[in-house]
TrEMBL record:
GO annotation (BP), single: response to antibiotic
Any Pfam family: Erythro_esteras
Descriptive protein name: Erythromycin esterase family protein
Domain of life: Bacteria
PANTHER family from the UniProt entry: ESTERASE, PUTATIVE (AFU_ORTHOLOGUE AFUA_1G05850)-RELATED (PTHR31299)
Record-linked SUPFAM superfamilies: EreA/ChaN-like
Residues forming coiled coils: none
InterPro entries per record: Emycin_Estase, Hydrolase/PRTase-associated
Signal peptide: none
Source organism per UniProt: Actinomadura darangshiensis
CDD domains on file: Ere-like (cd14728)
């Protein structure tokens, strides 16, 4: 039987472009990753994915690529599939807040798979770096299971800036706590069991807070700073409640993840670490 003359375009492309990697040591020299530089070019955002979760080799390679992007290409933010609101606490730890063994105290729940070692590397790197690496969460709070990670920093902010508005956010938090869960799949049935009056009350409270934030923005900024106001801004809480305040992961994730990624990165870069690490004005 004659040999097949069929050529596989994918295999041909691999032969022409693939670069073999001989090791996965995160601490080893990075010269073998230099071919990535031409692919990256002048991009400001590089997405690092994986074929499957929970594969040790992929995690090791991500750590090597993170080092390469920071040390060789000048990237300054690690954005991760982690709650936007919860990310500020991890960023503060990465900037040096607390002790080296206190990462767990900055995390809402368990440390996400694949994040422990990169965060420890960022903290070590930032001790001597002239340009620190920041951390940003770019996903919905608590995997869509709770409004509390977003409302808690708003309450902290109002406690300092506008104590008169604090009871409203505390009332919203009490209702939100009644249906909070570890994910949208857990919280959605609990939300459905709430009375219509409670659902409407939560929506009304969040809208009242949003209106107050908008109407007195100059006063809030004068009492604190623009960064603190921007972080505490209730736009995302409002977006989560469009059409109802319950946990709808698809709608909520659209509100968060489809916000321009560059805007999120720029927001992190332009927020001083002390805003979240020392003053906790969120």
């Amino acid at each position: 039987m004659p040999a097949s003359t069929h050529r596989d375009p994918f295999a041909d492309r691999l032969r022409g472009h693939a670069v073999p990697l001989t090791h996965l040591d995160p601490e080893a020299p990075l010269d073998d990753l230099e071919p990535l530089r031409d692919i990256i070019g002048d991009a400001r955002v590089v997405a690092v994915g994986e074929h499957s979760h929970f594969i040790d080799e992929f995690a090791l390679m991500r750590r090597r690529i993170l080092r390469f992007l920071v040390e060789r290409c000048g990237f300054t933010v690690l954005a991760f599939e982690y709650g936007f609101s919860e990310g500020f606490s991890l960023d503060a730890w990465g900037q040096g807040e607390g002790g080296d063994d206190e990462l767990a105290s900055h995390v809402a729940g368990a440390i996400p798979v694949g994040l422990d070692e990169p965060l420890h590397w960022i903290r070590r790197h930032n001790r001597t770096a002239s340009q620190p690496v920041r951390f940003a969460g770019i996903d919905i709070p608590a995997a869509g299971g709770s409004l509390l990670p977003a409302l808690t920093p708003v309450a902290d902010y109002l406690r300092q800036i506008d104590p008169e508005a604090l009871p409203a956010v505390q009332a919203a938090m009490r209702i939100a706590e009644s249906f909070a869960g570890g994910s949208g799949a857990v919280a959605a049935p609990a939300w459905a069991r709430l009375s219509t009056a409670e659902q409407d009350a939560l929506s009304a409270l969040l809208m009242r807070l949003l209106i107050r934030f908008r109407s007195v923005q100059p006063l809030y900024v004068s009492r604190g700073d623009q960064d603190g106001y921007d972080i505490a801004d209730l736009r995302r809480a409002r977006l989560e409640t469009s059409g109802g305040a319950g946990p709808d992961r698809i709608r909520m994730q659209n509100s968060y993840v489809h916000t321009p990624v560059l805007d999120a990165f720029d927001g992190v870069l332009n927020t001083q670490a002390s805003t979240v690490a020392a003053d906790i004005r969120m």
